[in-house]
Structures are given as C-alpha cells and as structure tokens.
Amino acid sequence: xxxxxxxxxxxxxxxxxxxxxxxxxxxxxxxxxxxxxxxxxxxxxxxxxxxxxxxxxxxxxxxxxxxxxxxxxxxxxxxxxxxxxxxxxxxxxxxxxxxxxxxxxxxxxxxxxxxxxxxxxxxxxxxxxxxxxxxxxxxxxxxxxxxxxxxxxxxxxxxxxxxxxxxxxxxxxxxxxxxxxxxxxxxxxxxxxxxxxxxxxxxxxxxxxxxxxxxxxxx
Length: 219
Known about the structure:
This protein is mainly α. Helices cover 77% and strands 0% of the residues. The longest helix is centred in the middle third of the chain and has 30 residues, at 64-93. The two termini are 37 Å apart. The mean pLDDT is 87.
C-alpha cells in the first residue's frame, strides 16, 4: 500500500507539503463531484425552512476556504499528538538508541499517508461504485471497516465511531508506525510492535473514550 522506504527519503518539510496537497485535492474532488451539497440541503429541509437552508449553504460556500486552511493545522495537531505518544513509549521502555523528536515526527507523517488512501477509497467508492446514497450513509461509511457489515439503525450513535475504527486501514497505519520505529531504533521488530501498541494504543483508547463521551452528552 505504501512504500515506506521511498517516503523516508523525503525531507520532513516535503512530506508535510505532499500530505497537505493530496488531502486538499481529494477534499476538492469530494466537494465538487459528490452530490453532498444536495444531500445536505435535503437533510436540512427536514428541520429548517427554505430560506434558512439557503442562508446556511451561502454561509458554508463563503467560508469554504477556511476548511482548506484547516487541513495543514489538522495534520500538524494529529502528527504532533502521535509523536508525543511515541515519545512516551520510548521513555517508558527506556530504549538504548535515542531518537530525536524530528525523526519520530517523520514516522508520524509517513503514517498519515494511510489516511490519504482512506479518503481516496471513500471518494471513488461513492463516485464510481455507489452513486446513490444518503448523507447519513456517506458520513457513517468507512472503507474496509467492520461497521459496514452491521445494521447501523440498531446501533447506538456513541458506538459508531469506535466500530469505524475497526478497519484494515487502521491496521495498516499501525504497522507503518511499527516499521518506521523499527528502522529508527534498529531493534527487534517485536519490540517496536510492543512500543507502538502501548504508546499509540493507549492514545487511541483515550481518544475513543473522549469521542464516545462527547457523543453521549450531545445525543
């Protein structure tokens, strides 16, 4: 799926620029080629008047540029949090090979390329394979996820996001981190696996707990 060795040859700044570019492109394609605007209008019309919906759509189009501006910020926040988790893992295991924060950050950036495949897969799935869908189906669909085999109408909303996390891309993301850490530390693969499982795994559990808590309080 991802040539980690090839990506590792890029400088940190270049990796970041490539990530922002591809995520911006797929976001633009999703906005222009999927009928999300129509679906959003139909969904809003269930609770709002035509005038209110028109105002909201105009407001969204006016500030759409702000969403694209947030893409690099989201990447920075997500990769910094992951790097922080990996740093904690190295500290807990007291590894002999000291790794700089920048090198760990590069591993986090390389892992982000897995998420590009998620966005691309989702776009092409709804653009080519399943052109007819509802807004809710688009929002709840996650590529190669266990949740796609379930009847979501029978599942509590606070469980949807955790179930979406059970997917092949998440597994690929995990092993990219393991491989990256293994190359940095030059240790046994099993040791890197353990460090990532404890550090990233703990961070993921905390994040899932936070999302579930917020979903329960907002529902």
